[in-house]
Amino acid sequence: MKGVTTETGAGQWGTALSMACSYFGLDCQVYMVKVSYEQKPFRREVIRTYGAKITPSPSETTEVGRKILAEFPGTGGSLGCAISEAVEAATHQEGYRYVLGSVLNQVLLHQTVIGLETMTAMDKYGIKPDVIIGCAGGLRYHGMSSILSQLYDDGLMEARTVEQTEVFRAAQEFARVEGILPAPESSHAIKVAIDEALKCKETGEEKTILFGLTGTGYFDMYAYKAFNDGTMSDYIPSDEDLAKGFAGIPRFPGNEF
Question: At residue 116, what are phi and psi to the nearest 5 degrees?
Fold first, then answer.
């Protein structure tokens, strides 16, 4: 095998795979969601430092990329676009394989470390949280981890959505109080944790609120700059936008909706 292709959104998976490929002497080609490629240049450079070739997606390098660009000029891309390009790139190069990782269970298993550490800490101090908050998202992609989907379907967790500017307002408040600059993904959990704390303040109820701070935001300074400059906006899809997206999902037995 000569090398692998893959997709990446914010860049964590692309970074991990590029590092692994450098250890084994494999070529690594990463298709990164274009909006993240532009907003996270330092994450991009980490991937390049490990030796991977990184391409903003959608691109002109693949047939599917050219088709998407023709239909949606100026698009910022999506994880779905990047996956499609990476698959095509692998099938058109002898000795290459496609590696899917961004939304699959084996990737999430690496993230269970923070949960195991939390359980150990809670047991050590005899604390039982009333609310546990984590961050997860589709990164402009309609897919979701099968583990999370099953937990949601079984009623073992609930999903919350929060607006982007409110997320960064919570991140700013957290940074000023704690001295830690949180990643935007983590800041979604921070925002909901603050909301839960404010509810308790209103009702007088005492709760132990646990949230996961999953990363720092030093690769996300362009996003922080947009928030600080007042140029960041909130985009909430309309029913028409959602209907158009759903219409593009293939129907097959077991996937009717």
Answer: -65, -40
Provide DSSP, the chain: --EEEEEESSSHHHHHHHHHHHHHT-EEEEEEEHHHHHH-HHHHHHHHHTT-EEEEES-SSSHHHHHHHHHSTT----HHHHHHHHHHHHHTSTTEEE---TTSHHHHHHTHHHHHHHHHHHHHHT---SEEE-----SS-S---HHHHHHHHTTS-------HHHHHHHHHHHHHHHS--B-HHHHHHHHHHHHHHHHHHHHT----EEE----B-TT-HHHHHHHHHT--------HHHHHHHHHTSPP-TT---
Asked if 190 and 214 touch (Cβ cutoff 8 Å), the reply is no
The Cα–Cα gap between 12 and 33 comes to 12
Distance between CA 189 and CA 170 in Å, rounded? 9
| Contact between 46 and 11 (Cβ < 8 Å) | yes
Both tokens of 239, joined, read: 């029913």
Tell me the pLDDT band of 256, cut-offs 50, 70 and 90: low
Give the tens place of pLDDT for each residue, 51-77: 999 999 999 999 999 999 999 999 999
pTM metric for this prediction:
0.84
Angle between helices 164-178 and 184-203 (to 10 degrees): 80
